[in-house]
Structure formats: structure tokens, C-alpha cells
Write a structure and sequence with these properties.
The chain is α+β, with helices and mostly antiparallel strands and about 200 residues long. It is built from 5 helices and 10 strands. It has 2 domains: about 5-95 and about 185-200, GMP Synthetase, Chain A, domain 3, CATH 3.30.300; about 95-185, SH3 type barrels. It has a 6-stranded antiparallel β-sheet with strand order 4-9-5-6-7-8.
Length: about 200
């Protein structure tokens, strides 16, 4: 990423933090991308233990838009040169987690883990509540197998061992992927999840 874009994201992050902290929200990530002929500033937000609604996205979008406009009219000049669209959205119900910051942000949430190989008698695919990420290791509560048993015996034993454990620790190096688990009771409709997209002509 170019140094200039790094600086731009850093400044947008500071402005966004001043908005979300007053709303009880967290920043998951901020990205600037070129989509066809337009540039999009994407801000992803999260609230611990609760869903992000379209209203949340709209509030953040309006307040951040106002701060960016005020900054553009100040002696410092605009944070972002030229036209762009500001998009504020939720992480999505099955977001793939890739950064240490995301692992920590989503502590307390149910995640799906895919292992490279079975360790500690665990199945290759399981879900559980992410309690902690420390020292490159995930601490998972109430692990449950997501594998469909194909045969009795070894596969069934791995499933039984997994579900009998109250808590397991899994090193990051043992995993193919970690993602939010889209539990039915937390699934969001398009209207609830959505995103707020505002054009800007700075």
C-alpha cells in the first residue's frame, strides 16, 4: 500500500474512532479501493455481542461525512483528494478473520475453525466461542464438530472428544481459516445488515 494511502487511512481512522466511541462501536477495518471509475472508502464496524443495524451504519456514515466535510473546509485541507463514496457496513455474518486485531475484536463471538490436520483429537472443522487470542493461540469454549460423520469409529470418536471438552486451545499455525459462524438466531436480513453508502465530491 502506498505511503500516501497509509496516511489517508490513518487520518480517516482517527476521525472514525471519534464517532464510533460515542456510539459503543468498534472499527473492524478501513479500506480505500477503486471500483470501476469511482473510489470507495469502506468502513467496517462492530458492536460486541450485538448485531450491527442499518441505522448504526447510517449514523456513523452521517457523522463521519460531517467530520470529513469540516476537515476539507479547514486550513489543513481534505483528508481524501477528489471524489469518493463513503461506505459504512457490518462485518457480515460469516466474515473470514485474517488479522490479529480482528481475532481480538471478535472475542466472545462464535467462530468456525478449519484445521490443517487433526490435533488433540479435534475434527478438521469445528465451531466454538472465541474466548481469547494470545501468543498466537486461540482459546475456544464449547467446541462442536461441524463435520458430517462418514463412518463410525475414528471420526465418531473425534467428534465425541471435541464435544466433551469444555475448552480447547488451538495454535494459529494449525489453522487454514477462521471465520464468524453464521448462527441462525443472529442471521440478519438484507434490510438489517445493509450498508450506508454516501457519495462525496470533495
Amino acid at each position: 500500500m502506498p505511503a500516501k494511502q497509509d496516511k489517508t487511512i490513518e487520518e480517516i481512522t482517527k476521525l472514525t474512532e471519534s464517532v464510533v466511541s460515542n456510539l459503543g462501536l468498534l472499527i473492524v477495518g478501513i479500506n480505500i479501493a477503486q471500483q470501476g471509475k469511482r473510489r470507495v472508502v469502506n468502513v467496517t464496524i462492530h458492536r460486541k455481542g450485538e448485531r450491527i443495524t442499518l441505522d448504526d451504519c447510517e449514523k456513523v456514515s452521517r457523522q463521519l461525512e460531517q467530520l470529513l466535510d469540516e476537515r476539507a473546509e479547514s486550513a489543513e485541507g481534505p483528508v481524501i483528494e477528489g471524489a469518493y463514496a463513503l461506505e459504512v457496513e457490518s462485518p457480515g455474518i460469516d466474515r473470514i478473520l485474517k488479522k490479529e486485531s480482528e481475532y481480538r475484536i471478535f472475542c466472545g463471538e462464535t467462530v468456525e475453525l478449519r484445521l490443517k490436520e487433526s490435533i488433540q483429537g479435534l475434527p478438521l472443522v469445528l465451531k466454538g466461542r472465541l474466548l481469547e487470542f494470545e501468543n498466537s493461540c486461540f482459546r475456544i469454549e464449547n467446541p462442536k464438530s461441524l463435520e458430517k460423520p462418514k463412518t463410525k469409529g475414528k471420526a465418531a470418536t473425534a467428534k465425541d472428544d471435541c464435544e466433551a471438552a469444555a475448552e480447547v486451545s488451538i495454535p494459529l499455525t494449525a489453522l487454514y481459516s477462521v471465520r464468524l459462524y453464521p448462527e441462525t438466531q443472529l442471521a440478519q436480513s438484507d434490510e438489517e445488515q445493509g450498508s450506508a453508502l454516501e457519495p462525496n465530491q470533495l
